[in-house]
Amino acid sequence: MIALASAKLIVIAALAGLSGLAMTAAIHRQVSAPETVEVNLSGGRQLSVMRYEVNWQDWSRCVDDAGCTFRPARFKSTRQQAYPITGISYFDVEEYVAWINRSGGTAWRLPTAAEWMELASELPRQEKPPLFTDPRLAWAADYGRMQPVPKTLQVRGSFGTFNTGVSDLAGNVWEWTASCAPSGSGVTDSARCPAHLVEGLHEAVISVFVRDPALGGCAAGTPPANIGFRLVADR
User: Which pTM value belongs to this model?
Assistant: First the structure.
């Protein structure tokens, strides 16, 4: 149905003599604006933050609009539900970001690890002595000390809302960030980065190709229960 509606919009726009840019905007009017909150960060910066993680409904719109190519195994049975989308790689996220940004108006992106940590400053942290004290190994400090987290997904809002207005930061879905994981190679450019920091109840390092860390794809640290994402935009 969405694809048919897009085709109709193309015809209408063409008949009306609209430019290619206007046609693109018309096609993507069907993209529902995400619910956002405005968050003040240190240094006077402000971000628009998606209140909830991107969910299966959001992902299905991207797939139907040919913006996202990956269809998770549970796509048919879960696509109409407000559960966070999980089991997606960093490259899958990049497709979604490109798609939602074609609708115009907001330049969405993944938060950096530092931004995510500031958004989640109320999140309780492990108080036991870390395994490593070298700051270069901070991402691995919790390895082997974290209790297993149930993987069963919950509908959005199930894990509470912080004072910032952002929900589910304390949930069982870890979130991709734009931050390249520290490595001996010194690579920090996202375009060449082999693994990114993933934030949640603890920090982990995940290869950009990985969709399910439970299958052994966690580059370092305790594997997350699930991997999803939310986006932010600069104000």
Answer: 0.77
User: What tens digit of pLDDT does each residue of 68-113 get?
Assistant: 999 887 666 666 688 999 999 999 999 999 999 998 789 999 999 9
Smallest CA-to-CA distance from 183 within 140, 136, 145 is with 136
Let me know if 90 is exposed, middle or buried by CB neighbors in 10 A (0-12, 13-18, 19+). buried
Give me 80's structure tokens. 């109409």
Six token digits for residue 167: 């929900």
180 contacts: CB under 8 Å, gap ≥ 6: 187, 188, 189, 190, 193, 195, 196, 197
CB 55 within 8 A of CB 27: no
Alpha carbons within 13 A on the beta-carbon side of 91: 10
Six-digit token string for 199:
């934030």
Paired sense of beta strands 218-220 and 46-50, if any: unpaired
